[in-house]
């Protein structure tokens, strides 16, 4: 039996779907309030859903019955400053619970981290699996939570756990909807006027899931892997999205000082309305930062050929028109 946490999310749902299509027995955890994704409803007879929050050890113990492989994709993601400390605590504690139960049940673990848990490379160099985040200067609560969650996995590995860690870049795909990277496409479609000079790593959700399954079924252990198809300038990305939608591309550059004003304004609006900010400090800084991610390690490990980002963009935009 294969257990997946976070299967109601974008990536977890894709992993579950690929495994079911391969004829695997799959059990997925979810919170009682979570809704089963549309893409998994046709496979309801092949997926066993259990209500088990990753912070509920007793429910998780029951979910682990008969399990030999675990994909841990569940995590709390929030931009709100008030959520920073509880988010870090929840993500780390939840991962610790998964690690401990994997040790107890002799399960192999594929843990989903993020490129947010990687540090910045020196000018002119690419970011690799050995590029470390400086927690002493990092202010992004999500990044800290992912790095400290990785530390729990490494702790488990030191205790004999068979595990690998994946660090996906920005995950795109048809089923993202309006959340996560889906917001980028939705914003461009609505008539984005500005572009920024930063760069980003991008990868199709199908490829991330393929990498995870391949690593699970390999003899590879005690390693972390960047999962990234291509590095793209944000300007090129939004221009290509606009072209696929058949609309004018953003023509004005948003300078760093403009982004600083924007996130401060968003924070003020969020404080007044109580809603999530449409732009936070981390996202604003990232939009004008140049980052290049090295994917040579995962390509060498499993021989994957990534789907071109342009192909993914066309698929996403064609579906959004319907």
From TrEMBL:
Residues 2-218 form the NAD-dependent epimerase/dehydratase domain. InterPro entries: Epimerase_deHydtase (IPR001509), NAD(P)-bd_dom_sf (IPR036291), NAD(P)-dependent_oxidoreduct (IPR051783). Signal peptide: none annotated. Gene3D superfamilies: NAD(P)-binding Rossmann-like Domain. It comes from the Bacteria. This is NAD-dependent epimerase/dehydratase family protein. It comes from Mucilaginibacter defluvii.
């Amino acid at each position: 039996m294969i257990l997946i946490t976070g299967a109601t999310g974008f990536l977890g749902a894709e992993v579950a779907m690929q495994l079911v299509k391969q004829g695997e027995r799959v059990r997925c955890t979810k919170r009682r309030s979570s809704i089963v994704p549309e893409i998994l409803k046709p496979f309801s007879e092949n997926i066993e859903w259990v209500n088990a929050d990753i912070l509920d050890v007793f429910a998780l113990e029951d979910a682990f019955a008969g399990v030999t492989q675990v994909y841990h994709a569940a995590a709390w993601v929030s931009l709100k400053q008030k959520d920073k400390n509880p988010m870090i605590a929840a993500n780390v504690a939840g991962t610790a619970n998964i690690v401990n139960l994997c040790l107890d049940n002799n399960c192999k673990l594929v843990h989903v981290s993020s490129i947010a848990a990687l540090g910045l490379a020196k000018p002119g160099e690419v970011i690799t699996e050995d590029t470390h985040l400086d927690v002493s200067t990092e202010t992004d609560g999500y990044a800290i939570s992912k790095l400290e969650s990785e530390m729990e996995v490494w702790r488990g590995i030191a205790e004999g756990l068979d595990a690998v860690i994946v660090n996906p870049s920005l995950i795109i795909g048809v089923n993202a909807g309006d959340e996560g990277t889906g917001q980028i496409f939705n914003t461009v479609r609505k008539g984005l006027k500005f572009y920024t000079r930063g760069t980003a790593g991008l990868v199709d959700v199908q490829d991330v899931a393929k990498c995870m399954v391949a690593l699970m079924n390999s003899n590879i252990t005690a390693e972390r892997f960047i999962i990234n198809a291509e590095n793209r300038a944000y300007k090129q990305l939004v221009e290509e999205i606009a072209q696929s939608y058949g609309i004018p591309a953003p023509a004005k550059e948003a300078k760093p000082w403009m982004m600083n004003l924007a996130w401060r304004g968003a924070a003020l609006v969020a404080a007044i309305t109580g809603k999530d900010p449409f732009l936070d400090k981390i996202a604003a800084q990232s939009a004008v930062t140049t980052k290049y991610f090295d994917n040579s390690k995962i390509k060498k490990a499993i021989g994957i050929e990534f789907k071109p980002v342009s192909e993914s963009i066309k698929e996403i935009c064609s579906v959004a028109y319907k």
